[in-house]
């Protein structure tokens, strides 16, 4: 999915820049640097695409400050805005899934997935603060631990959303070639297994 988004972004730039419809500065990199994603917060805030960032933060600030009355600049307000951002993002992605599949399968799971990211970031911030109070400083080793943590979290949480969408038919691969080496090897070995034949008695 990310590769498809990046391809469309690149194709649009290739077409519109030579026609002087847009300049190169209008097509910045769609995704950030992978090396910046050593926390879940940084992964969503820097590494992943920021196409909806302005839309989400603008509405989050409005609901948190103007509607709910939280004071601007307070720490609690920033976390309320964080949860609202991911809640709205969950609704947007759930709506997109419904528009594509024509079913609500995966809608609630999409909402749960994105709200879980806010829960994770909140807990992650707390753990990082505890580490700083204990005297831990950022280093190459802490970043490696961070990369492992982010990959583990995404591997754990992503199926909450992706499996329900797959059941709804978003990734129907019945006509696609087998790309998994291990699974392909098992199927090939199974198809080549000798069959036993019974000898008929004379």
The SSE order reads HHHHHHH
Count the DSSP helices.
7
Average pLDDT rating: 82
Low-confidence parts: 175-186, 195-202
- The amount of helix comes to 55-70%
Structural class: mainly alpha
Radius of gyration: 23 Å
The largest sheet is: none
Shape: globular
| N/C terminus separation | 62 Å
Tally of DSSP β-strands: 0
Which strand-content bin applies to the residues? under 5%
GO biological process, one term: lipid metabolic process
Pfam family, one: MBOAT_2
Signal peptide: 1-16
Keywords: Membrane, Signal, Transferase, Transmembrane, Transmembrane helix
Account of the 3D structure:
This protein is mainly α and 202 residues long. The protein has a domain at 31-163. It has 7 helices and no strands.
Compact description:
The chain has helices spanning 2-16, 40-47, 53-67, 75-101, 107-133, 140-167, 181-191.
Topology:
Layout: H1 2-16, H2 40-47, H3 53-67, H4 75-101, H5 107-133, H6 140-167, H7 181-191
Helix pairs in contact: 3-4, 4-5, 5-6
List keywords for this structure.
single chain; 202 residues; mainly alpha; 7 helices; 0% strand; membrane; transferase
